Amino acid sequence: MPTIERHTTKERGVHAVHAISFIILLLTGIGLYDKSFFGITKLFGGVDLSRFIHHWIGVVFIISLFLMYFQWKGEAAVFDKDDKEWLRVFGGYLGKDVKAPPAGKFNAGQKMFFKMIFWAGILFGITGIIMWIPQILALPKIIVQLSYILHDMILIGLVMGVLAHVYLGTLANPGTISSLLTGQVDEQWARHHHEKWFKQVIKKGR
Amino acid sequence: MPKNAMLIDVSRCIACRACQVSCKQWNRLPAVKSSFAGSYENPSGLSSATWRHVRFRETVEKGEVKWRFLSFGCMHCKDASCVFVCPVPGALTRRDDGTVYLDEQKCTGCKYCISACPFGVPHYDDAKGKVYKCNLCADRTANGLQTACAKTCPSEAIRFGDRDSLIKDAKAGGKKIYGENELGGLSVMYVLQESPSFYGLPDKPAMPVTTAFWKKVLKPLGYIGVSATVAAIILHYIAIGPKRYKGGE
Ligand code: HEM
Ligand code: SF4
Ligand code: SF4
After folding, report:
1. Which run of H or of E encompasses A3?
2. Domain boundaries, chain A
3. B122 C-alpha to ligand 2 centroid (Å)
4. For the segment B169-216, what is each residue's pLDDT rounded down to a tens digit?
5. Whose CA is closest to atom 8 on ligand 3?
6. The CA-based dihedral angle spanning residues B92, B94, B100, B105, taken in that order and rounded to the nearest 10 degrees
7. ipTM (interface pTM)
8. Nearest to A183, CA basis, from A18, A13, A19, A68
9. CATH number of A3-203
């Protein structure tokens, strides 16, 4: 099966750091969300250590977010007629034989997810720092209270978004996951899912 | 079970601050460096090392100086917002005897209680990484002693005892009690000379709406949202299934 390169090693590395730090943040944060999850803090050596890890992996999460933003923002900035149409037909995901319009390196849904991740991550960081050191920032109490609410709203939105993201990258689209594992994808996969990008790569490369 | 309580009659307070000092002495709290801010009040408020503090309210009325004092600390609420938000099991608990107890060993220093308390009582200690507040001298009351502040108060402004009898006594004297029914009933109650807000107390204390929204509305919404997402994914996989491409597996 002929393959082409979809993501460089650096791109995949940044995504991996970001994804793993997200999971660590989720596991170290969730113990504080509800007492029924408190036992999860034992995984990280207790609640104090969980929180310590949460704070500093939060920093890693933000740094990798920016790296990811700069490596992919070019592709995510384009938004053409096909993308509009793609959104209208929901990328063809709502039926068995719905044809989606051709996509570039990323389809319209991926671009929207990318932008959501970016802004949500920024807000995650800002609210997180406010929750971390309110005594040093000396902000009015209402700001701290609103930060708790925002941090959790973003949490809920991102967990929902990431679940869908993982499903679309694995079970829903066979052949996709290799773009993260080896960086290579099957040419036929590329032609089917990202036709415009595929044609560009072929034109440039051969 | 009888409930431990304190009733503070502010009209009897002479602002000697013996309560402030005895609290520090019993709980081995260090002195706090302070600076003059135009009032005899000192230090300026509660902190992680000051669990009882005498507030000064100095006003001038018709050319006369009016001095009002409020010996202030944790109110030991029945429906305590701090206990409600504390994520660590056992770190903040409301005991059967009416004490809201903060266990220094268990507290992780997340500061959730600080934002939730309607009275601004808990304070964070940066060096220790934990939050501190009055524990109603739980180590004394468990041994049949009264709280250090009540024991020391020379003018009997602070009285410690069984909650019901303290309330009965005050009512027999025709006095209005702040805290009898507020937040389900506070274990520290006041007989005030002015309106609660004059002393910087909330007229109608309640859990902040932001706190209630955070843990009572948003938290369950989170479970609904995440469950719905998982359900939608499973449904999609069954009803529509994966997108296969020509030449793929
Ligand atoms: C994917 C990213 C993140 C996830 C999934 C996440 C998750 C959570 C969760 C579930 C909580 C508990 C909320 C509650 O008690 O209701 C929490 C609390 C907290 N988060 Fe995050 N968070 C993330 C990013 C961050 C970042 C970037 C920072 C800051 C650098 C941060 C700082 C905090 C702080 C300070 C708390 C309060 C509890 C504590 O002090 O440990 N979080 N987070
Ligand atoms: S006054 Fe504040 S710290 Fe004390 S029990 Fe009530 S909510 Fe908790
Ligand atoms: S700071 Fe301590 S007492 Fe306060 S909510 Fe957090 S763990 Fe509980």
Report:
1. strand A3-5
2. 3-203
3. 7
4. 999 999 999 999 999 999 999 999 999 999 999 999 999 999 999 999
5. B86
6. -30
7. 0.93
8. A13
9. 1.20.950.20
